[in-house]
């Protein structure tokens, strides 16, 4: 189990500091820092994402609703489902010589 971490909070402004100081670095008040325990860090790296995003089943999400931008290459637009979606990343891979650079 991780060691509890101390944090020093100012009684005047509420600012926090990792170590005790005679003067609050946020508001400049003297002798106002009191020791307390820091809030525990999230247990996994995706905890911040799950709090801000609503989970949906894949069957509930429709990719057809997104507006598409045509690339001007008919076959590429067909493979992409009608064109590029704003904000998406498309990775194009293949053997050497198949024409990946030609798409640029």
Average pLDDT works out at 84
Number of helices: 2
pLDDT under 50 segments (min length 5)? none
Strand content is: 15-25%
Q: Give the structural class.
A: alpha+beta
Main sheet: strands, sense, barrel: 3 strands, antiparallel
Overall outline: elongated
Widest sheet, order of strands: 2-1-3
Alpha-carbon Rg, integer: 26 Å
Number of beta strands: 5
Q: Quote the distance from N terminus to C terminus.
A: 52 Å
Write structural notes for this entry.
The chain has 104 residues and is α+β, with helices and mostly antiparallel strands. Among the domains are: 6-37; 63-93, no CATH class. The chain is built from two helices and five strands; from the N terminus they run βββαβαβ. It has helices spanning 47-52, 74-79; strands spanning 6-10, 16-17, 33-37, 68-69, 84-85. The strands form two sheets. It has a three-stranded antiparallel beta sheet with strand order 2-1-3, with no helix packed on it. A two-stranded antiparallel sheet has the order 4-5. The longest helix is centred in the middle third of the chain and has 6 residues, at 47-52. It is elongated. The two termini are 52 Å apart. The model has no long low-confidence stretch (mean pLDDT 84).
Summary tags:
single chain, 104 residues, alpha+beta, three-stranded antiparallel beta sheet, two-stranded antiparallel sheet, 2 helices, elongated
């Amino acid at each position: 189990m991780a060691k509890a971490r101390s944090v020093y909070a100012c009684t005047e402004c509420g600012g926090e500091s990792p170590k005790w100081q005679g003067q609050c670095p946020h508001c400049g008040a003297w002798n106002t820092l009191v020791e307390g325990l820091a809030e525990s860090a999230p247990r996994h790296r995706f905890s911040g994402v799950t709090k801000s995003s609503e989970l949906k089943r894949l069957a509930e999400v429709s990719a057809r609703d997104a507006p598409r931008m045509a690339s001007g290459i008919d076959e590429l637009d067909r493979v992409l489902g009608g064109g590029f979606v704003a904000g998406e990343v498309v990775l194009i891979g293949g053997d050497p010589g198949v024409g990946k650079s030609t798409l640029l």
